[in-house]
Specification:
single chain; alpha/beta; Aspartate Aminotransferase, domain 2; Aspartate Aminotransferase, domain 1; 2 domains; three-stranded antiparallel beta sheet
Length: about 375
């Protein structure tokens, strides 16, 4: 077999919606499909306002500006995340303060946040890794105590929840990604969800190149002008048409991914802590509902991880490792600092192997991957 790591999702209506947009002569953003996507996100997340963006990274950029981040501020986040999480804040002159992760969920360790807070701290950025929520009750409690903003990097967590509350809508701002590797895709795209009305008004201005053009189109002002800093963060109608073809069958796509996730877990359970103890499997706390975004296993050490990745490649399986911790990267050393001891961030990241998981992955393909992993560990 030849099984890629990812296939962008397609539905029966994807082509029709794209062709319909081509014929409509409405190509720029905030057309009918953009509005459908926006309303769907608001409904499913419970957010006051959702704005479609050109990427999850740009949603984070907007959130950082809305937080009032300035040069000399500090922002607490995990080091085990994608560079976009840090770029949004260090780009405004802040220092990224990296805190260790929990080894069970690979999420920011909420018990270490308070000790990392200084008079310069302005925000906390929890990252819901793999669609599994951080401990948001504790994080928001700390933020309220110290009057800090909270920005959820929910790039991987659309339709995930914590204690029944949707990820991305439990804080000041939530940022989703619709990159082609996500459960729902625009190729490149994202969304920003916002809790406060005053922030929503400024966010519209930022997204429209610093102008109040959105208010003008709604008829609330008689002309539009340059109001504040901004950029072109409005995705085209083509991208939203493609996304809408997935969102309207979002439950079907999620169930398909969760089925593959469950097949992986059951198939590899015998190698995990409940069986031979050769690998670690993902942990989903009882209070969390995940969305089947990714499935990983952890080898016992970096050498074994490398050999396993090589064996799976030989079998035609597109398995990959995930983030190199930001604090060990050249930019992380220059623009951030690690608070406390790196007990788990580096060690756990060097063991992790991500397996193929996408809408349309067949049971046969999952079984093939599971058997390839079992074969690797047969002689161990």
């Amino acid at each position: 077999m030849n099984i890629p790591f990812n296939k962008p999702p397609k539905t029966e209506k994807s082509s029709a919606y794209l062709l319909g947009t081509l014929e409509s002569n409405k190509y720029s953003g905030d057309g009918p499909y953009s509005k459908k996507c926006k309303e769907w996100i608001e409904d499913r997340s419970g957010a006051r306002q959702a704005l479609m963006t050109t990427s999850g990274s740009h949603a984070l950029d907007m959130a950082a500006y809305l937080c009032g981040i300035n040069r000399g501020d500090e922002v607490i986040m995990p080091s085990y995340t994608f560079s976009s999480t840090a770029n949004a804040f260090v780009g405004l002159g802040a220092t990224a303060v990296f805190v260790d992760i929990r080894p069970d969920t690979m999420n920011l360790d909420e018990s270490l946040i308070e000790a990392a807070i200084t008079p310069k701290t302005k925000a906390i950025v929890p990252v819901h890794y793999g669609g599994v929520s951080c401990e948001m009750d504790e994080i928001t409690h700390i933020a309220e105590k110290y009057k800090l903003k909270v920005v959820e990097d929910a790039a991987q967590a659309l339709l995930s929840a914590y204690k029944g509350k949707p990820c991305g809508a439990m804080s000041d701002f939530g940022c989703f990604s619709f990159h082609e590797t996500k459960n729902f895709s625009m190729g490149e795209g994202g969304a920003l969800v916002i809790r406060e009305g005053k922030d929503a008004e400024l966010a519209e201005i930022i997204r429209e190149k610093g102008t109040n053009r959105s208010q003008f189109y709604r008829g609330s002002v008689d002309k539009y002008t340059w109001i504040d800093w901004g950029s072109s963060y409005l995705p085209s109608e083509f991208l939203c048409a493609y996304l809408w073809s997935q969102l309207e069958i979002s439950d079907e796509i999620t169930e398909d991914r969760l089925r593959s996730w469950d097949l992986y877990y059951e198939g590899l359970r015998g190698l995990g802590p409940e069986g031979r103890g050769l690998v670690d499997l993902p942990h989903i706390p009882d209070r969390c509902r995940h969305n089947g975004h990714l499935f990983y296993i952890k080898a016992r050490d970096p050498e074994e991880q490398s050999r396993l990745l090589g064996r799976l490649t030989e079998k035609g399986i597109g398995a990959v490792f995930h983030y190199i911790p930001l604090h060990s990267a050249p930019a992380g050393k220059k623009l951030g600092r690690f608070h406390g001891v790196d007990r788990f961030t580096t060690k756990e990241s060097e063991r992790l192997v991500r397996l193929p998981l996408f809408y349309g992955l067949t049971d046969e393909e999952v079984f093939y991957i599971v058997e390839a992993i079992k074969e690797f560990y047969k002689g161990v």
